[in-house]
């Protein structure tokens, strides 16, 4: 696993393929029609609908290219179920030293990281500190607010 590789779980690959399909089959054609309709209104210099549709279409084209690039170059991580060691695809339960609260995170590649869904990148401070560790290990994570110590409670 080279540091510059992009990693995806099967779930992450499926999500990106769904998004790509939706962009290509639904959003792109709808915006192309909106652009065509706006262009038919005449003077394009002051046509806000035309400029808006053109800008949105540009964003969609950029996202399509980005997703296609990820899917072409990503290393797909096969999840083999429970492991004794934290790896990409693992769900890890950790407990901050001095608290009784457990936190659960799924370690994923940076292309599918979403902290709101508790999916953290293997390149994030916590993700990189957890990789390769085992249940019961204590780790220290450097954060902007200082060092935080965690214990790995469970790995799924």
Provide tags for this entry.
156 residues, alpha/beta, Chitinase A, domain 3, 2 domains, two-stranded parallel ribbon, 7 strands, 24% strand, elongated
How would you sum up this structure, described in words?
There is one protein chain. The chain has 156 residues and is an alpha/beta fold. The protein folds into two domains: 7-77, Helix Hairpins (Orthogonal Bundle), CATH 1.10.287.180; 91-155, Roll (Chitinase A, domain 3), CATH 3.10.50.30. The protein has three helices and seven strands, in the order βααββββαββ. The strands form two sheets. The protein has a five-stranded mixed sheet with strand order 5-4-3-7-6. Strands 1-2 form a two-stranded parallel sheet. It is elongated and about 70 Å long. The mean pLDDT is 92.
How are the SSEs placed, and which strands pair?
Blueprint lengths: L6 E3 H30 L8 H26 L1 E3 L13 E6 L5 E7 L10 E3 L3 H6 L7 E6 L2 E10 L1
Strand sequence of the main sheet, in spatial order?
Answer: 5-4-3-7-6
**Overall outline:** elongated
User: In terms of structural class, how would the helical and strand content be classed?
Assistant: alpha/beta
Helix content: 25-40%
**How would you name the CATH homologous superfamily of the largest domain?**
Transcription elongation factor, GreA/GreB, N-terminal domain
Strand and helix order: EHHEEEEHEE
Which fold name is given in CATH as the topology of the largest domain? Helix Hairpins
Note the beta-strand portion: 15-25%
Domains, number: 2
Radius of gyration: 21 Å
Averaged pLDDT:
92
Number of helices: 3
CATH architecture of the largest domain: Orthogonal Bundle
């Amino acid at each position: 696993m080279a540091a510059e590789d992009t990693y995806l779980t099967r779930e992450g690959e499926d999500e990106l393929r769904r998004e790509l399909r939706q962009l290509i089959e639904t959003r792109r054609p709808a915006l192309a029609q909106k652009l065509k309709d706006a262009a038919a209104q005449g003077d394009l210099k002051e046509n806000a609908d035309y400029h808006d549709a053109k800008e949105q279409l540009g964003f969609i084209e950029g996202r399509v290219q980005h997703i296609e690039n990820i899917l072409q170059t990503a290393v797909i991580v096969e999840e083999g179920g429970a492991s004794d060691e934290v790896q990409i695809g693992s769900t890890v339960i950790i407990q901050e030293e001095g608290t009784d609260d457990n936190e659960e995170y799924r370690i994923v590649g940076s292309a599918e990281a979403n902290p709101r869904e508790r999916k953290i990148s293997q390149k994030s401070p916590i993700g990189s500190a957890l990789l390769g560790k085992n249940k019961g290990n204590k780790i220290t994570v450097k954060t902007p607010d200082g060092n935080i110590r965690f214990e790995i409670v469970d790995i799924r």
